[in-house]
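INFO  loader      accepted 1 record
INFO  loader      residues=150
INFO  predictor   begin
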Amino acid sequence: MNDLPDFGDPWRELGEFIREQRNVARLSLRRLSTLAGVSNPYLSQIERGLRRPSAEILQQIAKALRISAETLYIRAGILDPHRPEGDLTEAILSEPGLSHDQKQTLLRIYLSFRRENESAAAQDDAPRPSPVGAPAPPPGDEPRPGRGAG
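INFO  predictor   done
INFO  writer      dumping tokens
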């Protein structure tokens, strides 16, 4: 039965991974749903690849499974392991001076900013400002707003 749209395969793979982790942890679907604070039917749909869970839900599932939320974020495509942002995520997760809750809060904020920027970029055809640390575009012939000419 393959009624899923094109995005189904990555989500099905994520669901299978969550199911495998649940089985390794020897948790029933009902117990994991209780620990993660999500409904039993919703978790079942995630495991079957029928639902796309948010970063928040993935974090709750990861915490209940006692695995890294980053692992689920990468599998869900929220984080790209080949992009430099993974380094920031790893740095946050490995920071010994922060509690687990503080780390997860920072990751939620960071991912929220990324989603907001990606959403705005998808809706806006105009060039977007370069991210912090990216090389600036070459200067144009016209003075920049707020600066005097020459």
